[in-house]
Design goal:
- With 82 residues, the protein is mostly helical.
- The chain contains 3 helices and no strands.
- The longest helix is centred in the N-terminal third of the chain and has 29 residues.
Length: 82
């Protein structure tokens, strides 16, 4: 049963990527820069819900200028969580 659930989650993930990647390419080619941030944000939210990842933010995010967050990769789920 766990194998079937894992296969279903993998299928959902691949289906999402097949849809989002071409749409992101089109957005980046023809739209303004701010519009290109919508689909990655949506992709991350959906991936987190598929794999049941909960993200907890402690404190207030820094919004005065651009920020780079770095982490040590522990698993394949680090990117959607960050």
């Amino acid at each position: 049963m766990r194998f079937l659930i894992a296969c279903f989650k993998f299928f959902l993930f691949i289906s999402l990527c097949v849809f989002i990647v071409p749409a992101q390419l089109i957005l980046m080619l023809f739209c303004k820069e701010n519009a290109a941030y919508i689909l990655p944000w949506l992709w991350q939210k959906i991936v987190c819900s598929i794999f049941r990842i909960t993200v907890r933010v402690n404190g207030t995010p820094y919004t005065d200028s651009q920020t780079i967050y770095m982490s040590n990769h522990v698993s394949y789920l680090d990117i959607p969580a960050i």
